[in-house]
Input
Amino acid sequence: MIELLTPTQLDEMRPAGEFVASVLTALSEAADIGVNLLDLDALAHEMIRERGAESCYIDYHPSFGAMPFGKVLCTSVNDAVLHGLPHDYQLQDSDLVSFDFAVSLNGWVCDSALSVVVGTPRAEDLELIANAQEALDAAIGVARAGNKVGDISAAIGEVGRSHGLSVNTQFGGHGVGRTMHGDPHIPNDGRPGRGFPLQPGLVIAIEPWFLQTTDEIVMDPDGWTIRSADGSRGAHVEHTIAITDGDPIVMTARD
Ligand code: MG
Output
């Protein structure tokens, strides 16, 4: 079922988005050489407790998950790109790490992700992150009433292809509301003018992710962490946005 939120409900959702943004900012500042992924998860968990929010991840147990996720944060390092399960690993110089984070606050969920480089950046990693960000910006640019989900998908796919990337469509964006994952599904490639019509009050998470030299993925034995099949690195960016009569509201915008 697709729920359209009233302007009042969209206002009620804003604190969740602001909080998710603040946690991602804190994580990107804390991510440094020698910092353990488990400590970053603990930092996010502490911020959740202080704010009185509820993690969307810790008890998350979808059909593809071997067991409940058990952490509040996804940490995907280097050739991992999605759903990285935090584990005992200290970040190293030039690591590329993607954080994906979602909470419920006052009954409303927001979901957002970013990629950062630790220490000395590799040029190709910065470029991959910039490409993912360009795709997200392009997608938000067409996230307007009167357009269709396919316009968002096509915008992401076009940016990926323009940079010579092949785009995986197995995991993409989704509706967001009182729960983390709802309809419509937002594939990261598609045909413009097709699919569910965007309309005021529709809230969606848009989440382009790219791999450097493949679109094939493999899952770790942990049952969660998704990596590139060829060892090339990945970048992942995401915002929760609301369609309005005019410009979309980027709920999870960071300063
Ligand atoms: Mg997310």
Notes: The radius of gyration is 17 Å. The chain has a mean pLDDT of 96.
